[in-house]
Write a structure and sequence with these properties.
Layout lengths: L2 H12 L19 H7 L14 E5 L18 E4 L6 E2 H4 L4 E5 L15 E7 L5 E7 L5 E5 L8 E5 L3
Length: 162
């Protein structure tokens, strides 16, 4: 049993249990219109859904970083986001919608002076391998070939609005 499984068991054992109902009757409260009450209450947000645009971090069962689309032994075991409330297990809540971007502060540009945007895409090479490329968003020219994440420090994962 790995340390992450032990931590998961401890977390599940610490969750509050449902309290039994008291024997005495509940005190009467002021009557109010249920629709007015629900209109004034804030809508609950799901803590396992990150806000759009934040950095995401994915980990394997042994704690090493991994890519969200990895399979087999490198598959995602848990994930979190930057300044998130904690780690979420992929088996319990699934994975959030994500996309790749260049890290802030890295400026890769097309040789055409007026082209500013870049995009990160996977392309299949002629020998059948997948290649991560940074391309110009306007003309599609290759700017840089990158290693696959998480080994490439220039690429990070961000949450996409779902």
């Amino acid at each position: 049993m790995s340390i992450l499984d032990k931590a998961k068991q401890i977390r599940l054992s610490r969750e509050p249990q449902a309290r039994p109902l008291p024997d005495e009757p509940i005190a009467a409260s002021r009557p109010c219109d249920i629709s007015v009450q629900s209109d004034q209450s804030p809508t609950p947000t799901d803590p396992s859904r990150p806000p759009a645009g934040v950095r995401l971090f994915f980990g394997r069962a042994d704690g090493c970083p991994t890519a969200p689309d990895a399979e087999g032994d490198d598959a995602v075991y848990h994930w979190t986001w930057e300044r998130g409330p904690g780690w979420f297990y992929a088996a319990e809540v699934g994975l959030p919608a994500w996309e790749m971007r260049l890290r802030p502060g890295l400026y890769l540009r097309c040789k055409v002076v007026t082209h500013r945007g870049t995009r990160i895409v996977w392309r299949n090479t002629t020998d059948g391998r997948k290649q991560l490329r940074c391309e110009c968003a306007e003309c599609g020219k290759l700017i840089k070939v990158m290693r696959a994440p998480p080994k490439c420090p220039d690429v990070e994962f961000i949450a996409r609005a779902s």
